Amino acid sequence: MVPLSFAGHDLMALPEGALYWPARRALLVADLHFEKASWFAARGQMLPPYDSIATLSALGGLVARTGAAELWCLGDSFHDSAGCERLPAEARTLLEGLTARLDWHWITGNHDPVVDPFGGSIAEEAEVDGLLLRHEADPCEVRPELSGHFHPKLRVSVRGRLVSRRCFVATGTKLILPAFGALTGGLDAHHPEIVRAVGPRAEALVAVEGRLLRFPLAA
User: Fold this and answer.
1) What is the pTM of this model?
2) What percent helix, strand, coil does the chain show, rounded to 5?
3) DSSP tag of 119
4) In 196-214, which positions are buried (b, 16+ CB within 10 angstroms) versus exposed (e)?
5) Does the pLDDT of residue 60 top 70, yes or no?
6) CATH code of the domain made up of 2-216
């Protein structure tokens, strides 16, 4: 975990693409996209049907590692409106075990169905200790805001080789989390839609072991 100061709050950025909020013992993740593989399979593109289990196993590992007591999912937790129904039994068991142990909060996104059967509270957005939590950044929002939606990734050339890493995108008042899901892909952090959402003075932040690498993004 790497220290990350945002809007007067001390957070910790994790290389896996999550945020830990020590003052609240809260873990924040975005864009889990449970059951994305089964959605593609139903349309003829056969992918290994283990993405939900892989995502939940990784999430459970972070909960154990951080000692989190609270968890916020910043939208698009399921890939589509029928994702809840397709969630396999093993994944249901993992998810229900986590929601039972944690103070769990679902922020809804543009893909999300109602997720009542799995426990936790559901809201379109929430303001927590002065930070606004929502799925998609609002360019007109002036309050400090945490969001997801864009799945940002930074692509850089290292010794002639193109390297792609999930990244956070940050300004003084906006912080976009990368997608946490095991099968989510990503949008280049320089993409005009990301810059439009956060403004021209943004940085891509890549958490590596012990360091937070900062890359200015062009307007």
Assistant:
1) 0.91
2) 20, 35, 45
3) -
4) ebbeeebbbbbbeeeeeee
5) yes
6) 3.60.21
